[in-house]
Design brief:
Elements lengths: L2 E6 H11 L4 E4 L6 H12 L6 E4 L3 H13 L4 E5 L1 H6 L1 H9 L5 E6 L13 H4 L7 E4 L3 H16 L7 E6 L7 E6 L2 H7 L24 H33 L7 E4 L6 E5 L4 H13 L4 E6 L1 E3 L3 H8 L4 E6 L10 H12 L6 E5 L9 H14 L9 E2 H6 L2
Parallel strand pairs: 2-3, 2-4, 4-5, 5-7, 6-7, 10-11, 10-13, 13-14, 14-15
Antiparallel strand pairs: 1-8, 6-12, 9-11
Helix pairs in contact: 1-2, 1-7, 3-5, 7-9, 10-13, 11-12
């Protein structure tokens, strides 16, 4: 019988991580991530989880601890956000280039300055090219399922890369909703014990790790790293189908398509805003407007082929970003989507949107407005300036 609970996103992440039986957990508290590690420490204290929790003095130390533990053959977990993520950047980059399958939750929060604590994927998107895999989720059920799936993806012998499971601070981390928790035996069957054979620090078998490399050797490292990311892109699609068969839930793999098959217009979203956007798509459909939604899940590696396949031939699309791309005067995922379209040599009229910065709500009014602008852009080959939805709709 299904174990159904009402959980906030942080607790969903902690339960999922615990069910994956990590050997080592290390993290430093930072809002809005802190409860994840508090829950995990509670699980260990109560005897629910047989793991070692390392209490460290900073995020840099936290990533260093799980890096060393992973090198020694342990399954590891950590979590962070915002300034904590930026503090751990040096070992964060090293973890990926050492090909260590660390799973890390990022509870998305704005970067400073000016000072703000509220949700935005600006933190994780700013380090998207540090070699990690990155998945962004919509709700608390997807948090739980994706953390479990993340270990299978990261630890696969053809991948062996660390992975971020990213979810919106406060909107998901601190808000509660229905979550179905699988049986521990089911998770154990899906996720076998981690048994590395590519690297294992052992004083009885000395080896060199992270040696000084020249250009040719470094090129080989980078080439294989990029190949592993592409392997992950394809493997995620397979694992999503396997997860659906075992647990009854599928998220589409690298992207989710919602009412896109016969759509003439598509709105592109990511994260928790997707729920209200789906309601707006349904509303538009009821009004006779052929609108669909494309939800971005995998940002690294970017699913450019699938994105272009969905958007090619549509009359217009728009991308709603909860972040900014400094220097492009638009959002980050808009740039990624446009690059995908260009790579496939196809042009579709489009509109870039920015909304929800600093924790501002993205409401049906904002998405309805965006949909009308997307429809109006059909047939227009001239580029559209970025629309700041909170300013336009709220009249600021």
């Amino acid at each position: 019988m299904a174990n159904i609970q009402v959980l906030n996103g942080n607790r969903a992440a902690a339960i999922a991580a615990a069910m994956c039986r990590p050997d080592i957990i290390a993290a430093y508290p930072i809002t809005p991530q802190t409860p994840i590690v508090e829950y995990l420490a509670e699980f260990v204290t109560d005897g629910f989880l047989d793991s070692s929790v390392s209490e460290v003095e900073s995020e840099l130390s936290a990533m260093s601890v799980v890096t060393g533990a992973s090198l020694a053959g342990s399954r590891t977990f950590t979590a962070s956000a915002s300034q904590g993520l930026s503090l751990m950047y040096e070992p964060y980059f090293r973890a990926s280039t050492l090909r260590l399958p660390i799973v890390m939750a990022i509870v998305n929060r704005e970067m400073i300055s000016p000072q703000t604590l509220w949700g935005s994927p600006q933190d994780s998107l700013s380090v998207r090219d540090a070699g990690w895999l990155q998945i962004y989720v919509e709700d608390n059920q997807e948090i739980l399922d994706t953390v479990i799936l993340a270990y299978r993806l990261a630890e696969d012998k053809n991948v062996l890369l660390p992975i971020n499971v990213c979810f919106d601070g406060f909107y998901l981390s601190h808000m509660s909703e229905r979550v179905e928790i699988p049986e521990q035996s089911e998770v154990d069957a899906f996720l076998p014990k981690y048994q590395p054979d590519h690297i294992l620090l052992d004083p009885r078998r000395p080896m060199a790790v992270d040696p000084l490399t020249n250009g040719n050797l470094l090129t080989e490292y980078r080439l294989k790293h990029l190949q592993a990311q592409q392997n992950a892109l394809h493997l995620l699609e397979e694992l999503d189908q396997e997860y659906a068969k075992r647990f009854g839930r599928s998220y589409g793999g690298s992207i989710e398509e919602y009412r896109c098959d016969d759509a003439e217009y598509v709105i592109v979203t990511m994260g928790s805003m997707t729920g209200v956007a789906k309601d707006c798509v349904d509303k538009a459909r009821d009004a006779g407007k052929k609108v669909g939604l494309l939800k971005l899940r995998l940002i690294r590696p970017f699913p450019s082929t699938r994105v272009a396949f969905v958007l090619k031939g549509k009359r217009a699309f728009g991308v709603v970003d909860r972040n900014v791309s400094f220097g492009w005067n638009t959002g980050i995922t808009y740039v990624e989507v446009c690059a995908s379209m260009n790579r496939k040599n196809c042009f579709v009229p489009n509109v870039p949107f920015i909304a929800g910065l600093g924790g501002e709500d993205i409401t049906m009014r904002h998405i309805d407005y965006a949909i009308e602008m997307i429809i109006a852009q059909a047939g227009n080959t001239e580029s559209h300036e970025t629309v700041w939805l909170n300013r336009e709709v709220n009249g600021l």
